Amino acid sequence: MALKKSEQVAQPADDNNLVCSCTEGNSWHLQSLPEMDSALFNNWVELVESRTGMRIPENRKSFLLSKLSIRMREIKIASYQAYLELVSDEQRGLVEWETLVDRLTVHETRFWRDDSIFQLIQKEYIEKNSLLKHKQLNLQVWSVGCATGEEPYSLALWFEHFCTMNSIENKQGVHATDISLAALATAREGLYPENRLTNLPDGYLNYYFSKVEKDKYKVNDNLKERVCFTKLNLLKMDSFPFSEFDIIVCQNVMIYFDQALRIRILNEFANHLKVGGILILGAGEVLAWNHPGMESVTFPSTLAFRRSCE
Ligand SMILES: C[S@@+](CC[C@H](N)C(=O)[O-])C[C@H]1O[C@@H](n2cnc3c(N)ncnc32)[C@H](O)[C@@H]1O
């Protein structure tokens, strides 16, 4: 079936076993995904899990196949096995692996995704520690799995607005990390289509963003300076040199990991918090975690823990 050409890259089709691709004649075609036997599928699953923590279940095999097929067609690799050999090679396949990671990770996010975390930060951290009596708010915040930047910019925006409203100097900074270099590049640029900004509270768009193109807005420099984007794989947290955070926000990331890995990462987060610091997760993302230095924080619509002692 020939389709009208509307985009420059191949896209997964709605049907799970089809991929939509552009031929040299510039027309679009739906093609069946090449088969992958279970041994090769297991090798791919193991490679992705050992390097990213993400486990691809059997019922997402067609997701993996469509992402691999699209990329293989782009770089003219004929078989899943040859592609596996390329990306498994830690030297020859390094650059290609970075591209593939971006294709396999889900970067779904939005501005002001979870309003309750701001209320939690205000009540459970700022007010509980009477920080408003100081002339400045000097908090270090870590946005983990920040995708294309909407979460860390929302945090920076909230702090900026909060400090202005309370007439205190904002010295706060957000460290934002992700495994995907492409997502981080988008985040650093800070350029968003208007329809991705509709969730912002009234007035924020005009105050903290500048319209730079038709229907596109850029985060203002003074806000951008508050957010530092760095590549970090949560499986390699030893390489992250920062600790003593006041707040760690990790939402919609753990869902891709199994329970044992979630616990390992949570224990690492605990080590990166100062005493009194708060870890905020997505509601329902973690069950049965006990850490001697962490206590649960009860707050509506949130899952959070406080570092209670060293
Ligand atoms: C669904 S997004 C969550 C975005 C944001 N936190 C939010 O809630 O809106 C998940 C992000 O986790 C990142 N991620 C997945 N595995 C990772 C890993 N091993 N290390 C670091 N980031 C990872 C993905 O690249 C993706 O950007």
Notes on the structure:
The chain is α/β, with parallel strands linked by helices and 310 residues long. It has two domains: 2-104, Chemotaxis Receptor Methyltransferase Cher, domain 1 (Orthogonal Bundle), CATH 1.10.155.10; 116-307, Rossmann fold. Helices cover 35% and strands 23% of the residues. It has helices at residues 38-52, 61-74, 80-88, 94-104, 116-127, 150-165, 181-189, 204-208, 221-224, 259-271, and strands at 2-3, 11-12, 18-22, 28-32, 136-137, 140-144, 169-170, 173-178, 191-193, 209-213, 216-219, 227-231, 245-250, 273-281, 294-297, 303-307. The strands form four sheets. A seven-stranded mixed beta sheet has the order 12-8-6-13-14-16-15. Strands 1-4-3-2 form a four-stranded antiparallel beta sheet, covered by helices on one side. Helix 1 packs parallel to helix 3 (80-88). The longest helix has 16 residues, at 150-165. Mean pLDDT is 91; it is low at 1-15. Bound molecules: S-adenosylmethionine (SAM).
What distinguishing features does this structure have?
Rossmann fold, 2 domains, about 35% helix, 10 helices, single chain, alpha/beta, Chemotaxis Receptor Methyltransferase Cher, domain 1, four-stranded antiparallel sheet
Topology (elements, then pairings):
Elements: E1 2-3, E2 11-12, E3 18-22, E4 28-32, H1 38-52, H2 61-74, H3 80-88, H4 94-104, H5 116-127, E5 136-137, E6 140-144, H6 150-165, E7 169-170, E8 173-178, H7 181-189, E9 191-193, H8 204-208, E10 209-213, E11 216-219, H9 221-224, E12 227-231, E13 245-250, H10 259-271, E14 273-281, E15 294-297, E16 303-307
Parallel strand pairs: 5-7, 6-8, 6-13, 8-12, 13-14
Antiparallel strand pairs: 1-4, 2-3, 3-4, 9-11, 10-11, 14-16, 15-16
Helix pairs in contact: 1-3
